[in-house]
Amino acid sequence: MIVSIVTFKLPQRWTVEQAATVFKSTAPKYLGKPGLASKHYFLSESGDRAGGIYFWKSRTDADACYTSEWKAMVTEKYGTPPDILFADVPVSVNNVTGVIETA
């Protein structure tokens, strides 16, 4: 599993309510996305940075999502291009199921 952390600096500060409205408009695009285990949207406490934390089955699955069309859509929606950080996930702790998973 890998995680990708997508962030972008917002041109103006958002409230949590503004962020939730925008995030709800894009969330359905990720339901059933091949290789995507979960996505978590976030807004920084200061309201000037937002993004998503994605858990992917593989880097290939992530790369299939982050196309030039996707980057253009994100840039248009949020007013700035995204930064994407990729990281391996060698160990996960799931407190819902009580399971520790390893790669």
Description:
Strand 5 (91-94) and strand 6 (99-102) form a beta hairpin. It contains three helices and six strands, in the order βαββααβββ. The model has no long low-confidence stretch (mean pLDDT 95). The strands form two sheets. The chain has a four-stranded antiparallel β-sheet. The chain is an alpha+beta fold. The chain has a single domain, classed as Alpha-Beta Plaits (2-Layer Sandwich). It has helices at 16-26, 59-65, 68-78, and strands at 2-9, 36-43, 49-56, 83-88, 91-94, 99-102.
Put the structure in a nutshell:
With 103 residues, this protein is α+β, with helices and mostly antiparallel strands. It has helices at 16-26, 59-65, 68-78; strands at 2-9, 36-43, 49-56, 83-88, 91-94, 99-102.
Helix percent reads 25-40%
Compute the number of strand runs: 6
Query: End-to-end distance, in Å?
Result: 7 Å
Question: What is the CATH topology?
Answer: Alpha-Beta Plaits
Shape: globular
| Run of helices and strands | EHEEHHEEE
Count of runs of 4 or more consecutive helical residues: 3
Number of domains: 1
What is the CA-based Rg, rounded?
14 Å
Based on the structure given, which CATH architecture is correct?
A: 2-Layer Sandwich
Average pLDDT metric: 95
Q: Structural class given helices, strands, pairing?
A: alpha+beta
Strand arrangement in the largest pleated sheet? 2-3-1-4
Low-confidence segments, given as residue ranges, are none
The profile of the biggest β sheet is: 4 strands, antiparallel
Task: Give the CATH class.
Answer: Alpha Beta
Strand content: 35-45%
